[in-house]
Design brief:
By secondary structure, the chain is an alpha/beta fold. The protein is 37% helix and 17% strand. The chain has helices spanning 12-24, 82-88, 101-115, 143-152, 174-177, 190-193, 206-215, 245-251, 253-257, 264-275, 279-292, 301-317, 325-331, 339-349; strands at 4-7, 32-36, 55-56, 59-60, 66-67, 73-74, 92-96, 121-126, 159-164, 183-187, 220-224, 229-233, 239-243, 322-323, 354-355, 358-360. Strands 7-2-1-8-9-13-10 form a seven-stranded mixed β-sheet, sandwiched between helices. A five-stranded mixed β-sheet has the order 12-11-14-16-15. A hairpin with a 5-residue loop joins strand 4 (59-60) and strand 5. It is globular.
Length: 366
């Protein structure tokens, strides 16, 4: 029987869907993953999510839902991780198009559920920010989750809300989420990460990287993002929970507000009113700032390692035991497009510090 996992916020949630699918349905055919094409600016320099018109090579599944095969390509200047995911994983990936608001997403989901003859749907969020109220000061990316939550609550097919890695997205702390998580289904293990091991070598998602690291037994404090946010890696990190869908909707003020929206712009306006911002506005501002920057070449190896040593000493003084390659890149003053080159150089020079897929900080605090 075909299964559908909706990656609530796109990005790393789509990669995590492969891990969760392995954990829950090891001997079954791989699930269909419905996800946004909404990558960080280091992958896609165009702010906001992409729609079908931003790709070539898509395949129509229903009149409003398109599969993203490995041969698909984003139309320049857009970028997307989805074609490569489709090429490297056995799962089928399909595109959420949010440009017609929640009504459009609901229609896409209903069409797909009928086409696939689904008995139920899983809605997956890494970190748990989908369980937010909407005005928490630590929230950074509530819009995508709110749109999928609102759409899933209007379907005729039962939906199970899954939360993987409580607190690992760095948006709501695990302590704040604990009473909202519902029952624990399982704890992810190293075995469950195997299908995505090669993906995590290049995919930029920090939350899913930390989920995989926690499943492999890594514990400590991981420094992420350009701001250097600290995220604890604990025994709670690799857990998977089933939360109450209706409770999530009743708590999430942004999801309630966007229930009847018919455009992404309308949903953005609700986000500005309830959350105080639109994350797409943040992307627009950051994209303009990045465009104004001059990309500096990566330093020669001795100078680069000296920079790294300084960063590690400071990070260690902040209590960090691990970090991500995105964090290293930005802390050393490099742009997102240089992340993979920098990663390769560091792995060549100090392979013993690679605690896959994270970087282990070994410096002693000053």
């Amino acid at each position: 029987m075909t299964r559908l996992i909706v990656a609530a916020g796109g990005g790393g949630d789509a990669v995590a869907a492969a891990m969760v699918d392995t954990a829950l349905n090891r001997d079954a055919e791989p699930a269909v993953v419905l996800t946004y094409a909404w990558d960080r600016l280091l992958i896609d320099p165009v702010p906001g999510p992409r729609g079908p018109a931003n790709f070539t090579g898509l395949r129509a599944i229903t009149p409003t839902v398109y599969a993203v095969p490995g041969v698909a390509r984003p139309v320049h200047p857009a970028g997307s991780t989805l074609p490569r995911l489709a090429a490297e994983l056995p799962h089928s990936f399909a595109l959420i198009d949010p440009h017609a608001g929640v009504r459009g997403i609901t229609h896409q989901l209903q069409e797909l559920a009928e086409h696939l003859a689904l008995d139920s749907i899983d809605l997956l969020d890494v970190g748990g920010d989908i369980l937010a109220k909407g005005d928490e000061p630590t929230l950074r990316s509530p819009l995508g989750d709110a749109l999928t939550l609102a759409a899933c609550c209007q379907l005729s097919v039962p939906v199970r809300l899954l939360i993987a890695g409580p607190g690992l997205d760095g948006e709501l702390p695990a302590d704040q989420l604990r009473e909202r998580l519902g029952r624990q289904l399982l704890s992810l293990t190293a075995e469950h990460t195997e299908p995505v091991s090669s993906i995590l070598e290049w995919h930029p998602s920090e939350a899913t990287a930390m989920l995989a690291a926690a499943a492999r037994g890594t514990r400590g404090l991981c420094e992420v993002r350009d701001s250097g946010l600290s995220v604890p890696l604990t025994d709670e990190g690799p857990t998977l929970h089933e939360a109450d869908l209706d409770d999530a909707l009743h708590r999430n003020e942004l999801a309630q507000a966007v229930l009847s929206t018919t455009s992404l712009e309308e949903a953005e306006e609700h986000s500005r009113e309830i959350c105080g911002y639109s994350e797409i506005d943040y992307e627009r501002n950051k994209a303009a700032w990045l465009d104004s920057r001059t990309t500096k070449p990566i330093e020669s190896t001795p100078a680069l390692l000296a920079q790294l040593d300084q960063f590690e000493t400071e990070a260690s003084a902040r209590g960090a035991t691990h970090t991500t390659f995105r964090r290293i890149s930005e802390a050393l003053g490099y742009v997102g497009s240089q992340r993979l080159e920098l990663r390769e150089l560091l792995l060549q020079q100090r392979p013993e510090q690679y605690d896959a897929p994270l970087w282990r900080i070994t410096a002693n605090p000053a």
